[in-house]
Sequence to fold (281 residues):
Amino acid sequence: MITGTYKKTTDTSTGILMDDFDALKRHIEQTLKIQCNNYKEDYIKRRLLSRMRSTNSTNYEEYLRYLKTNPAEYEALRNALTINVTEFFRDNDVYECLRKDVLPDLFSKRKRLRIWCAGCSTGEEPYSIAMILHDFLIQDKTLAAQIFATDIDKVVLAKAQEGIYSQKAMVKLSESQIHRHFTKLPDGTYQAKPHLKELIRFRPHDLMGGTPISRWLDLVTCRNVTIYFTENQKDDLARLFHDALVTDGYYIMGKTEYLGRQVENLFVPSNSVHKIFMKKE
Ligand SMILES: C[S@@+](CC[C@H](N)C(=O)[O-])C[C@H]1O[C@@H](n2cnc3c(N)ncnc32)[C@H](O)[C@@H]1O
Fold:
């Protein structure tokens, strides 16, 4: 059980010495370049506790010592802090709206679309969008599209760029989608075909840095990322996306995410159930 000393300031929920928490946060910021204060404190603590349990550290000080003497732990900690669970066509009905409503509307106004998939993790989200886009592009050769797929975590981004997925990861794809868009490799994994990869540019990018990956964007998807951010950070991010979008551009959030009071006037709902919004000037 994780206990900790009670000599100085202690955290009432965990009983762990807080002074060491600050030292650990500073070390994380210096080494992993992750700004802990941008995240809710509870979230950081929960993620740290999970690493402390896995490394049998009983308090923050002990974990900090473990971290400094076990370089491999830095990667494990980075992964824990930037959890990157994802899947192809996560919330399928959102992708149906993208196919039936959002993309037809955007292509009716412009022939060349610019899309930002922010917090893309291992790439399943941008590849899902690319599969849908490809259907539009082969039907009308005058159409074009570019997806900027970004994440703060370079490890997941490298996986995304490689585009190789286990058989288990393919479970939500139809036989036809697998056949058209992936090549089966000798070890039983599947690699995204060049026509999908050509639609996507993967780049590292910190959403808390205050600058968009590009401007004049037609669509921004940032799904299941902001749940880790403070209310102020979420509002700033909505303003950033608003700035980066063209008028009438779309912003798609995760199903459990919402627009804060301060920023809800920047967008109009296009589909409230699926958290699809349009930029308002
Ligand atoms: C749960 S995954 C979401 C993946 C995908 N969008 C989806 O909905 O399936 C959250 C991703 O957000 C990324 N992330 C967390 N903080 C970030 C930040 N400040 N800037 C960019 N990406 C961030 C994590 O690295 C992780 O890959």
Q: What stands out?
A: The chain has two domains: 18-81, 92-279. Confidence is low (pLDDT under 50) at residues 1-7.
